[in-house]
């Protein structure tokens, strides 16, 4: 996609005319080949057939008044007709030559009574094109002369309807602020640069919603996904661990890239994409490997960067177009929404014509279009562009490329606009000629760190500006800047001013986001990152103000992540599937108009999404009976997660029954070590929905955090509006007052109460399976509480491990233990007086597996059955041990404890009251039935029925909690001394040596 070492993927004249005769051999317009013509000099003769232009309308239709700008849409570079034909001089575009010296494809030129050469020629499109191939690719216009293009000459008078579009393209139109995604690419090889070295930990993730690691490859015959470079496996854990700093960040892997389709790789991967996508079996092999790769390293999605399907100069074949659609379709079906999918698009017609845009758009989350590298040193090798200095990114040419998407009815919200954090540089032929369209001799001097002639990173460009005290020139029409130095050096690039121009233009076109190639090309001071957020020095914002903005944004995003992770239910409601109970209350949530306290025995539950780690939590702010509570108070080292005018804690075993209500103010549920859910948080800075009106007096920000931007500029404020931090109206007022109010109730505390939501959130999994109670019960938590009457003489308890509640692997381990390891023993006991027994069978694991070899970041936990709280776990009695997902283990632990509180303990109290000994009731262990179609049923039902299925299939090899699967790892030093982390192929079984 974006390897700095490759030449252009997007070339001069984004829309270039295809060859006039189908089947003629196209030349590579991207790679640097031997020049067709000598480099221009003042002594080079220039051929102009003026008479041909006067008499041949075909020439006029295909030539622009200014060929140097590339506005002659879709012109193929090496076959532009430059004159008429004559005996012995055929039409250079391959058309028929008539006896009148006119080139064309109609009977007037190709008829037997008038044609003198190329008489079998067919038009590229339209009525005189070969049957079955008469329509223009990408729905561009077919001119009356039989050529595909997008200018007025092609699309207006004489445009052949039915062979493509006709008329001007209708651009989408929006107001500002439509963009929500910011995707950064990280070059894995940046970690090995001699200077400006960048590790994943060096990346400024503050402005990003997504971060793509470039690149991974796959084997050309086995189709197994592999790292691009040997050291990449050491970078993956660092890369995906960035999500711990920003829970809304998504980390993706980009597969492919420009060099992957080179013929010089070993093994040769040039046709790997075509071979893989060419059959259903190969696609499934690749997808299975890709899914395992993403699970292993914790990636959230994949960007497919095939450069390019269908293009014969890049190893492509005609069937690639349809097969690419099949590939993304199969990926979407296989992932089931668990992983994101995007594809990378070129902005040049020459390569984009092989993409079925509409077919692909239906199966991907978004489309990344590379709107950069329009010009570069490769222009010297092309006779239609020539060795002329031009910026590598130009909004006019970019919009011509985007028009190809609009002609195919692509939703602009699905499109991400490309920004380059680097420049294309030249060495000028004449140092006195330094403006665009001056002649260059060759590429600019290589940067001290990127070490590539013709390319400079933004970090290198900023050092050049500082060293030479340069004042950049801005081209507001092209929306780009350039500088010259050292007598003959020239480079174009983007900074805060031009980046914001492009973002504004993209927003007006309703685009969904931007992508950056590449974030590792920024300086250590994050100049380009500030530019992207609109708070760079080029935007007139001081470094102090930029720092204040960043701190405010981080604080607010943290609050948004918390509010997206947890919510309060209505009184008596249970948590939605995929959410688990963390606390209970009976009062009101502050700042919610019309909110009421719970009546009777009903309580409301604070529910947090799967993937949330709450840490250590407690209620704070209670001042005593009849006293007001200390609102928004949390002890040092903890942070506010939720508020309520009441806190409700019940634990009969510990003789705790607290039902504390404030006489004014609210209590705070505070946690230390709280990690928001990456699953519940989206790529937008937004709240969980609250459909009710927010009162005007609370719509301003409750924490009232004020940041003084003494030298604040409208651009800086606009950046805050774009980020969703303040309203546009607030921006205007605050800038005028030299003060911007940024803090909010941390996006949810003041306006709606942190996490408050008045409709149940979308379930993260299937609906809950809760049995109908047969007695009156309090509606508290996940389990309803049993109430026994005076006529009840005894009771029994059964714990059902319920599938579909985000801890399937725990149920599978229990089922395996009971059915196989413990000879179908279902009844267990809980009479211990001293808590968890010591020196259990589970503790043997420590002597057989060194726990330090397992990376805690890979979310693995050790699960045992019988549970440690059961008598049968004491005295080194046999337990079945399994490695499981730590989050699932935690969720199940809460479920088990709630069951003990709501079912087992009430039964124990009844038996005590009736004098039954022992009062502790036996516990029957069972599990809920599988849903129809469950793999574990299928396996058991397959013949031969007299043979048990393999235990991995029968007992939940694939049943881990989706999105946070447990993959044990170990880390060691290789022969070179590098630290390498490997993932175990064993996904949970054989925790002990005698396991099957």
Description:
The chain has 996 residues and is α+β, with helices and mostly antiparallel strands. It has 4 domains: 50-123 and 126-155, no CATH class; 181-533, TIM Barrel (Alpha-Beta Barrel); 557-741, no CATH class; 777-983, no CATH class. The chain is 22% helix and 18% strand. It is built from 23 helices and 39 strands. The strands form 12 sheets. An 8-stranded parallel β-barrel has the order 6-7-9-10-11-12-13-20. Strands 14, 15, 16, 17, 18 and 19 form a 6-stranded antiparallel β-sheet that branches. It has a 3-stranded antiparallel β-sheet with strand order 2-1-3. It is elongated, with a radius of gyration of 34 Å. Mean pLDDT is 77; it is low at 2-83, 683-781, 851-858, 944-948 and 985-990. Residues 82-121, 122-168 form the Chitin-binding type-1 domain. Its EC number is 3.2.1.14. Residues 1-23 form the signal peptide. Disulfide bonds join 91-103, 96-110, 115-119, 136-148, 141-155.
